Amino acid sequence: MELTWHGHSTWHVTVGETDLLIDPFFDNPHTSLDASDVDEPDFLLLTHGHADHIADAGAFSDATVVGTPELTGFIEDEHGADDTIGMNLGGTVECGDAFVTMHRADHTNGINTGYEYDAGMPAGFVISDTVPTQVADEETTTFYHAGDTGLMTEMREVIGPYLEPDAAALPVGDHFTMGPMQAAIAVDWLDVDHAFPMHYDTFPPIEIDVDDFEREVTGTGSDADVHVLDGDETVDLSEL
Question: What family does this chain come from, according to its entry (predicted)?
Answer without folding.
Answer: Belongs to the UPF0173 family.
